[in-house]
Amino acid sequence: METTKTINPATGEQIATYNRISETEAKNKVAKANEVYLTWKHKSFEERAKLMHELANILEENKEEYAQLATKEMGKIIGQSIGEIEKCAKICRYYADNATTLLANENVDTEASKSYVTFQPIGVLLAVMPWNFPFYQVIRFAAPAIMAGNTGVLKHASNVQGCAFALEEAFEKAGFPKGIFTNLNIGSDAVKAVIENKHIKAVTLTGSEPAGRSVASIAGENLKKTVMELGGSDAYIILEDAAIEEATDLATFGRLQNNGQTCIAAKRFVVLDEIYDDFLEKFTEKMKAKKMGEPMDEETFLGPMAREDLRDELHEQVEKSISQGARLVLGGNVPDGKGAYYPATILAEVEPGMEAFDNELFGPVASVIKAKDEQHAIDLANNSSFGLGSGVITGDNERGEKIALQLEAGNSFVNKLVVSDPRLPFGGIKNSGYGRELSSYGIREFTNTKSIWID
């Protein structure tokens, strides 16, 4: 029987082994999810909300246990893991409390005696999810989808199968019918058959651009809807009127949060010429001061990357950027010893055409880019195949808003790091994907937007 192993990236030691399921077993689990859907879709919002609130309670009550599991499997520092579980509970409560309103019928004035739009569930959804937020990414999909009346099956990343099974168990503990949320421990090569399964009605994926292209292609061949949240190379414009202290605090946290492995992390810092040197000096000082170490240590700010191969790929990107003319200011070396560690790293004088400018660096590496003026900064920020998040740091909110409106991204924040919030839609454009999660826009992605007309 094929197995998958989870490895602690801080030590390189094996945590657990999990058995892969066969194609037949996966097919049976999807069939069970469909069977549950046929009943679940008729449940009232009140009935669904009661169970979703209980799931939130279970997540909160067991947050230390879940957080430790996430940290052991993918290396997130423990404080941020706890924060991730707490955010999951908030998402569950948000949709439990607001699904009725978000999916309320919309009356439309026509010549009919009655006409309106209604939003109905569509069936079993497949979620292909990444390891970097092993609980939150899943709940962000599952809470709205299930509150809308759908059921879900999960293909989680192989290195966080402990988290995947913990989530499945949490749904059952909350009282949801068995089969409403199911983990499929399958390899990437088995995803095609699941997508093609007649009971799967749509697919959502959060992951890399190549993974998105592959899944979207298979789903397209089968005429099934997809929502894609892919990579990002978020640019933050630092204007000359920005407060250097606050700007560098934001930049440091933005680049090192989740050990630098966040799709909406601040990755490219486009700094106006007038303050470029001051920003770089203070940014370097703060990045250098952040402690790298054991992620269970509460004093650690930067833990290991999720896997050694990912760390090695990142290091190759750094070396390539340097060979192309970028200047290494900080870090840029693979530490001796065990674990998938990579230090806080800064590349300066980064320009278009360099690896650190053109492609996503999914780890604790910052690209600092010089802009001659405001328009040049906007052009540099938009000079990317990605369009997930973006930001503007300025002493003038009105000016920042005008610039934010010109940035080519699904999210543009002024004087704040891009974050996902259940009240706002989340997603990207260009090679960062399509479709939206969260808010009314997200919960409606996987519903039948149905017109009703009574003559």
The gist of it:
By secondary structure, the chain is of the alpha/beta class.
* Contiguous uncertain segments of 5+ residues: none
CATH class of the largest domain: Alpha Beta
CATH architecture of the largest domain: 3-Layer(aba) Sandwich
CATH superfamily of the largest domain: Aldehyde Dehydrogenase, Chain A, domain 1
Structural class by secondary-structure content: alpha/beta
Strand order of the biggest β-sheet = 12-13-14-11-10-16-17
**Relative helix content:** 40-55%
What's the CATH topology name of the largest domain?
Answer: Aldehyde Dehydrogenase, Chain A, domain 1
Describe the protein's architecture and organization:
The protein has 455 residues and is α/β, with parallel strands linked by helices. The chain has 2 domains: 3-230 and 432-454, Aldehyde Dehydrogenase, Chain A, domain 1 (3-Layer(aba) Sandwich); 234-414, Aldehyde Dehydrogenase, Chain A, domain 2 (3-Layer(aba) Sandwich), CATH 3.40.309.10. The protein is 41% helix and 21% strand. It has 15 helices and 20 strands. The strands form 5 sheets. Strands 12-13-14-11-10-16-17 form a 7-stranded mixed beta sheet, sandwiched between helices. A 6-stranded mixed beta sheet has the order 7-6-5-8-9-19, with helices on both faces. Helix 3 (63-74) packs across helix 4 (78-102), helix 4 (78-102) runs parallel beside helix 5 (136-147) and helix 9 (244-256) packs across helix 10 (276-289). The longest helix is centred in the first third of the chain and has 25 residues, at 78-102. The protein starts with a strand and ends with a strand. The mean pLDDT is 98.
